[in-house]
Design brief:
Rossmann fold, alpha/beta, Gfo/Idh/MocA family oxidoreductase, binds nicotinamide-adenine-dinucleotide, NAD(P)-bd_dom_sf, six-stranded parallel sheet, Dihydrodipicolinate Reductase, domain 2, Gfo/Idh/MocA-like_OxRdtase_N
């Protein structure tokens, strides 16, 4: 596309996160949200009214046939990511795809194959990469402050945070999993990003479901459907080995009897020259100077436009500049392969080697 034209965006899925995307893209001059669609037309109508979006399409197929749209945001339940993202790429649209890439690794591979044929931008929506402290740590890593990062501990142990009990969120055939695929994917993505080029090779993991099946541990995201189903995990733990010998341990829960790191996301990076800790909105760099330990506190800017707007801008810049996004198709596939290997390891009790064949 001509690089100074406004990118025309359509939003597929007007639920919780679709609504957030509408708000974020509206803040940017370089694009305009021109259409929205949802399986519930009334919801699409009300969002269109709220955000001043001129067109409501009857369904996603009508949106993809609309030549006035350059790019779509896919913000639907996980099982629909692959069919919609593939059709969008085949229709010539650029795609910002919500996480996880797909509800299983086979579907993620289908998306990557469609992407490779498409010559379009496919970007994963992992806004945590654009959070201020995470950007600062990445910058220090790129300057060599940590040296070789050989061990990373990450996770997000929510105490009482099961989203939308009984809805698609807690049904395996719609979501592909519980907290591992929901919030674990963010921590996995961010950790692999900070670890640089390390490529996951094998995984050993276990999942548990102690709260969800008993209708306990319910959080505030999404409305419960008490006639629905809960057949996913509520806690997962895994060790991931990389091709350069480094290791990543990942622990996530929607519900657990713990206040571990105040139930907030965390990453501890241990490198040969230094370390970094990101936890509960605070960040530190660690070093040994002479015979003393030294910590440097990282500061969050008092005024910040926000990670999601930076992520949205990056998507537009990639479309205009024909660039590969930071949260690329291959990064989405990598995350999907690791997640699936953790589920398989839990089922089989064995370590699982990742299958990269496309
Ligand atoms: N990046 C993040 O931090 C983040 C946060 C929350 C959710 N998400 C992801 O966003 C996606 C949506 O989550 P949510 O919380 O908004 O769920 P949601 O249930 O609130 O919204 C999903 C919407 O998709 C609509 N929908 C379903 N099938 C459709 C179809 N075929 N065509 C058009 N619309 C359809 C539903 O009617 C619903 O309104 C999930 O993949 C989730 O993992 C990401």
């Amino acid at each position: 596309m001509v690089s100074n034209e406004k990118v025309r965006i359509g939003i597929i899925g007007a639920g919780n996160i679709g609504n957030v995307h509408m708000k974020e893209f509206k803040k940017l001059d370089e694009c305009t949200v021109v259409a929205v669609t949802d399986a519930f037309p009334e919801l699409a109508q009300s969002r269109a009214k709220e955000h001043g979006i001129p067109v409501v399409h009857e369904n996603y197929k009508a949106m993809l046939a609309d030549s006035q749209i350059d790019a779509v945001v896919v913000a639907v339940p996980n099982e629909m990511h692959a069919p919609i993202a593939i059709e969008a790429l085949e229709s010539g649209k650029h795609v910002l795809l919500e996480k996880p890439m797909a509800f299983n690794a086979a579907s993620a591979k289908d998306i990557v194959r469609a992407f490779l044929k498409s010559q379009r931008v496919l970007m994963m929506a992992h806004q945590m990469r654009w959070e201020p402290l995470n950007l600062q740590v990445k910058e220090q890593i790129e300057k060599g402050a940590l040296g070789h990062i050989y061990n990373v501990k990450t996770g997000w142990m929510r105490r009482k945070g099961i989203p939308g009990w009984g809805t698609w969120f807690t049904q395996m055939n719609k979501s592909g999993g519980g907290p591992l695929i929901d919030i674990g994917v963010h921590m996995l993505d961010l950790s692999l990003h900070l670890m640089g080029g390390a490529k996951p090779v094998s995984v050993f993991g276990t999942t548990y479901a102690e709260f969800g099946p008993k209708k306990r541990g319910i959080g505030t995201w999404g409305k419960p459907d008490w006639n629905g189903l809960y057949d996913v995990e509520d806690l997962a733990t895994a060790l991931i080995k990389m091709d350069n010998g480094s290791t990543l341990s990942l622990d996530v829960s929607w519900a657990a009897n713990t206040d571990f790191i105040d139930n907030q996301p965390y990453i501890y990076l241990m490198g040969s020259e230094g370390g970094a800790s990101l936890r509960a909105g605070k960040g530190k760099l660690h070093k040994e100077v002479f015979d003393r330990t030294a910590d440097i506190e990282l500061t969050v800017p008092s005024v910040d436009e926000g990670s999601r707007v930076r992520m949205s801008r990056h998507f537009i810049e990639c479309i205009r500049g024909g660039k590969e996004p930071l949260t690329s198709a291959m990064s989405g596939l990598t995350n999907s392969l690791v997640l699936e290997a953790i589920y398989e390891s839990s089922r089989t009790g064995q370590a699982v080697t990742l299958d990269w064949s496309l």
